[in-house]
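Per your request, structure below.
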């Protein structure tokens, strides 16, 4: 009778293991001491890199401590003041370029500043500074630098767009571009954009 009970117990154990194994159960052997296995954890990859080595992502943003979006640009950063670039802060997950233009100019969009080669990540500049490690292309006036807002008298309030364009890491801007042509080429290659707009009246 005892042997029958033991044999029955073993059969029940075997049935339980057989049912459990497809669900990933481990540790069921002939005598309860069989080998166990630990499921491997697959590595998560991002753009071909392991997650821990992948660059931190985040939204594309551009702001200025000198003025908020849609607000007037302080005179210091215009032709009525020092005419220097306003301080900026930005976040760019990949490489980026900055274009400052005036879509309200009488002869069509007027490009005040073109900066390329902005490195991935977050950055900022103080008043009068250009983002470090970048290249400045000629603006509509032919100057490789920032030109402050200076709308013609009597033309009302103009809107100045500080547009940060996200570009592919391997993107190379063709040489010899300037002003509106450079701005259009950058906009055409961009994968995303963020914009800060300031106003100034002529």
């Amino acid at each position: 009778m005892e042997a029958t009970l033991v044999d029955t117990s073993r059969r029940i154990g075997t049935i339980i293991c057989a049912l459990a194994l497809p669900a990933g159960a481990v540790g069921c052997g002939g005598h309860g001491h069989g080998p166990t296995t630990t499921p491997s954890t697959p590595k998560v990859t991002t753009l071909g890199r392991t997650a821990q080595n992948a660059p931190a992502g985040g939204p594309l943003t551009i702001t200025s401590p000198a003025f908020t979006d849609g607000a007037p640009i302080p005179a210091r950063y215009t032709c009525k003041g020092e005419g220097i670039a306003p301080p900026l802060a930005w976040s760019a997950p990949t490489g980026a370029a900055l274009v400052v233009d005036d879509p309200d100019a009488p002869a069509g969009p007027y490009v005040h500043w073109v900066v390329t080669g902005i490195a991935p990540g977050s950055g900022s500049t103080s008043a009068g500074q250009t983002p470090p490690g970048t290249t400045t292309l000629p603006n509509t006036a032919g100057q490789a630098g920032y030109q402050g807002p200076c709308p013609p008298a009597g033309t009302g309030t103009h809107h100045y767009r500080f547009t940060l364009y996200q570009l592919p890491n391997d993107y190379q801007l063709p040489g010899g571009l300037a002003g509106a042509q450079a701005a259009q080429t950058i906009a055409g290659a961009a994968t995303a954009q963020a914009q800060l707009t300031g106003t100034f009246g002529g």
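Strands lie at 45-46, 49-50, 61-63, 88-92, 96-102, 110-118, 121-125, 135-137, 157-166, 192-201.

Regards,
D.
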